[in-house]
Design a protein that fits this description.
It is a single chain. It is built from 19 helices and 16 strands. It is α/β, with parallel strands linked by helices. It has two domains: 254 residues, LmbE-like (Rossmann fold), CATH 3.40.50.10320; 193 residues, 3-Layer(aba) Sandwich (Rossmann fold), CATH 3.40.50. It holds the Pfam family NodS.
Length: 458
C-alpha cells in the first residue's frame, strides 16, 4: 500500500492556463527544514552512468537541467532519452530542434536519444518504453524519470516503465517532478521522499538558457503558453528536487545517499580567515573603498523608518553597517562566520551584540523589525540560500522589513552571484516590495511594510 496521501497518488486535474501553486507557498513551507540533501558523489561512486528519460522535449531542462549540466561537467556519462517529439510528426519537428539545442546548451557532452513514440499516447506504449530503457540501463546506471504522480498521462507512463526496468535491471532510480509543483500543495506531499540538490552557478545559468531554447512552449497566441510564468518560476529555483521511489527495493538503493544539510561555521569561515592572516584588518576595503561607503549609505537610505526596535544583520564582516544601524535601533544583532572579522568589529563598537556563526545554521532566534542581508547571499549555495531566506522571513515581525542587497558584477569561485540571489528572493518572499534601487554596481530590494514612507510618517 502507498505511504502517500491519496491526493498525491491520484493527481488532481489541472490546466496550464492556471498559475498553479505559487512559489511563496512552496518555498516558505516549514517542511523543507527536514528535507535532506542528495549526496550525488556517493551515488556516482556506485553508478558509472546517468540516464534521464523525458516524456517530451523540455522536461529534462525544466526538472533537472542544472544537475545534468553539473554531472556532464564532472565527466559522468550522461544520456537524455526523449520519448516523444512533442508534436504530431516525428523527426524534424520544431520541438525536436528546440530539444537538441537545449541539451547542447546544458552540455555538449550529453548524448541525446530520440524515440518516435506517440505524444499523448505513452500509456499505450509500455512495451516500447520498457524495451528501450532495458537496452540502456543496468546495475551501473542511475536512472532519472518523472514521479509516478506527476499528473500528466505521458509522465506517469514513463514513471511506470522506469520503475519496472530499474527493478528488473538492478539500477538506481530517482524521480523528478514537473507538473506536480503545479497541481499539488505542500499538504499533499510525503516530504520524507524528497531530496534537494544545489547546482553550480554555471549549471543554473545553462539551465535558464536551455529553457529559453523551447520557444514553442514559452509563447502562444492566446497568451497562455504551456510553460507559463508559474512553471518558469519553479524551474528557475536555485535548487533542484528529486523524489525517492516508493518500492522498498528501489528506495533502499538511494536511502543512505544523504549529504550534510549545510556547511559548518569553520568551513564557511576558512577563506575569510585566511584573508585576515596577512595582518590586514580591512582586506575587503570596507573603510577605504568609495563603493563600500556608498553601498552602506544607499542601504541606509532605502530603509523605510527612522527608528527600529530590533535589527539583525547577516554577514556583518567588520561591522560597518551594524554600527551605523545602532543610531536607528534599540538593539542590533550581527552575525558573521569569521572570528577575525568579529574581532575587528568588536573594537569598532560594543553597542552591537556580535554573534559568531554561519547562516543558515546559526541565525539567531528572535523577532526583528529589520533584517539586512547585504552582499552575503552569493556565498551560500542554492539550498542554503533558500533555507536562509525562509529562516529570516520567519524571524521578521509582521510590520518588519527585510533588505536583500548585492553587488551586480560577475563572481568567481563562490556558489552564486548577486542577480541570482535577488531573483530567487523576489520569487519566494510573500511580502510587498517596499523599495528597489539599482545601478550598474548594486541592487537593493526592501521587502515588507511600510509600502509608503510618506503615508507611514504622516
Amino acid at each position: 500500500m502507498s505511504s502517500l496521501p491519496d491526493a498525491v497518488v491520484r493527481a488532481r486535474p489541472f490546466t496550464h492556463r492556471d498559475g498553479g501553486t505559487d512559489e511563496p507557498t512552496w518555498l516558505m513551507s516549514a517542511e523543507w527544514d527536514d528535507v535532506p540533501r542528495l549526496d550525488t558523489a556517493a551515488l556516482l561512486r556506485r553508478y558509472a552512468s546517468v540516464v534521464l528519460v523525458a516524456p517530451h522535449p523540455d522536461d529534462e531542462s525544466l526538472a533537472l537541467g542544472a544537475t545534468l549540466a553539473d554531472l556532464a561537467d564532472a565527466g559522468v556519462a550522461v544520456t537524455v532519452v526523449v520519448a516523444t517529439h512533442g508534436g504530431g510528426s516525428p523527426g524534424g519537428t520544431v520541438r525536436r530542434r528546440e530539444g537538441d539545442r537545449a541539451v547542447r546548451t546544458l552540455s555538449t557532452r550529453i548524448e541525446v536519444i530520440w524515440w518516435d513514440l506517440p505524444d499523448g499516447g505513452l500509456a499505450d506504449a509500455q512495451d516500447a518504453l520498457r524495451a528501450g530503457l532495458a537496452e540502456l540501463v543496468d546495475e551501473s546506471t542511475l536512472l532519472f524519470a518523472p514521479v509516478e504522480c506527476d499528473g500528466h498521462s505521458d509522465h506517469e507512463a514513463v514513471a511506470r516503465a522506469a520503475e519496472a526496468v530499474a527493478l528488473d535491471r538492478s539500477a538506481a532510480l530517482l524521480l523528478y517532478p514537473v507538473w506536480l509543483w503545479h497541481w499539488a500543495t505542500p499538504a499533499d506531499l510525503d516530504w520524507s521522499r524528497l531530496r534537494t540538490l544545489a547546482p553550480s552557478l554555471r549549471a543554473l545559468q545553462a539551465k535558464r538558457d536551455a529553457i529559453d531554447c523551447h520557444r514553442s512552449q514559452l509563447v502562444s497566441a492566446d497568451g497562455h503558453p504551456i510553460v507559463g510564468s508559474g512553471v518558469l518560476a519553479r524551474a528557475r529555483r536555485v535548487a533542484e528536487t528529486v523524489i525517492v521511489p516508493l518500492p522498498p527495493g528501489l528506495a533502499g538503493r538511494v536511502a543512505d545517499d544523504v549529504a550534510e544539510s549545510s556547511r559548518g561555521r569553520s568551513e564557511v569561515a576558512r577563506p575569510f580567515e585566511e584573508m585576515y592572516d596577512t595582518g590586514d584588518d580591512d582586506p575587503w576595503q570596507f573603510d577605504g573603498s568609495v563603493y563600500e561607503r556608498r553601498r552602506l549609505e544607499l542601504v541606509a537610505a532605502c530603509l523605510g523608518r527612522e527608528r527600529y526596535g530590533r535589527v539583525l544583520e547577516i554577514g556583518c564582516a567588520t561591522g560597518q553597517l551594524a554600527t551605523r544601524l545602532c543610531d536607528r535601533a534599540a538593539e542590533v544583532v550581527a552575525l558573521d562566520a569569521s572570528a577575525a572579522a568579529l574581532r575587528v568589529a568588536k573594537e569598532r563598537s560594543d553597542a552591537v551584540r556580535w554573534v559568531l556563526g554561519a547562516a543558515p545554521r546559526d541565525i539567531p532566534d528572535g523577532d526583528y523589525d529589520l533584517i539586512v542581508m547585504s552582499e552575503i547571499g552569493y556565498f551560500l549555495d542554492g539550498v542554503d540560500l533558500l533555507t536562509t531566506l525562509r529562516a529570516l522571513r520567519r524571524r521578521l515581525r509582521p510590520d518588519g522589513e527585510l533588505v536583500v542587497a548585492n553587488w551586480r558584477g560577475p563572481t568567481e569561485n563562490i556558489p552564486l552571484d548577486g542577480e541570482t540571489v535577488q531573483q530567487q528572493a523576489a520569487a519566494m518572499l510573500d511580502l510587498p516590495l517596499r523599495a528597489h534601487y539599482e545601478d550598474v554596481d548594486l541592487v537593493i530590494d526592501v521587502w515588507g511594510q511600510p509600502v509608503s514612507v510618506y503615508g507611514a510618517h504622516r
